[in-house]
Design goal:
409 residues; alpha/beta; Aspartate Aminotransferase, domain 2; 7-stranded mixed beta sheet; 4-stranded antiparallel beta sheet; 14 strands; 36% helix; 13% strand; globular; binds pyridoxal-5'-phosphate; transaminase activity
Amino acid sequence: MKSTLETLAIDGGEKTVQTTFPWPIYDENEVQAVAEVIRSGRWANPDCGEAVAAFEQEFAAYCGTKYAVSCVNGSVSLRLALMACGVKPGDEVIVPPYTFIATASTVLEVNCVPVFVDIDPETYNLDPKAIEAAITERTKVIIPVHFAGLACNMDAIMDIAHRHNLKVIEDAAHAHGAEYKGRKLGSIGDAGSFSFQSSKNLTSGEGGIVVTNDENLYRMMASLRNVGRMEGGQWYDHFNPGCNYRITQMQAVLLSQQLKRLEEQTVLRNNNGLYLNELLADIDGITPLSRGDGEIRHCYHLYIFKYDSSAFGPLSRSEFVARLSAEGVPCSTGYPHPLYTQPVFQNRNFMCYAIPESVDYTSVHCPIAERACRDEAVWIFQHAMLGSREDMRAFAEAIRKIQRVVSQS
Ligand SMILES: *Cc1c(COP(=O)(O)O)cnc(C)c1O
């Protein structure tokens, strides 16, 4: 009777999902655009090339902001925004612990103190009530991360910032094209930072950009990105402590081509995410994250659900994810640790003397982030969310298959 039982792909059975999900997506337009720059010999910005400025204008227009400053990656873009906000050594910056290290490590790089505030269990985004409770007289900036491409509660965050006279830098590295109440993420705070690293929803392999409506922030970030030069100044006149953080013309034309695809891809991921939410709704032990309050457009840099092993055998989360991957769903267990448990924080390897001795990350605990890291979160990657509705049904079926097999054994 053994042959009538299902066999998981991890044990040699047939994969549930037959499709593969390419990333990045490009065609001859991208190849042509880069080739033309190469043949022109105008590879650099500034001084010989307009493609970088053209892309900045296109991206700012897409986000609905006045200005955009491109740079080498989405960590430097955070750093430029922090420096331009005028932070002083020892100032506190509120960040979530469940995010990529750059959200917090760039705070250290500008000699400031990252203050970790726990996430909301339903959305994995910063919890506004916890933000308010963490504010001290040294707090200068809040960095909300629109985690996975899901908008933070920006009304509440901007209200807190206004009442306490704080700057808001949106870390929108996951959130190209996503929206909050009809506005593009990144355009709501004082500045919005994006990454174009290879895994991100808009990519040129590496790269970053900051958008803003604030002319002073813009001028400072543009100067810092360009070795402290000022617009209209001389080549060897340096006014601010910046660096060469410029991107190339090849990156800029590639991004201009990729940007043409972004809106359609974002709508597709959002629709697939809504559909997958429906498909997973009645599977025991699987709880998709909530899409939060207000009208949002999710761009699903990650599709995240919470996993409860007691409904699966119990298979540990890593055993479950290994089986789901083998069935053909591109997925992972995500971050293994909340940021404050990383050695850089635990051992105070700050390379900076402005962080008070009293700052002790060994006593920080954010229980929701710890649970997400330890055994709860499962991530499906953005390129898989560009599949068809049939692919979404196959993802749900792969999960059901694992559940059937483990409950039979
Ligand atoms: C990717 C990422 C960054 C940094 O971007 P890089 O381009 O890799 O430097 C910052 N914040 C978050 C949340 C990210 O995921």
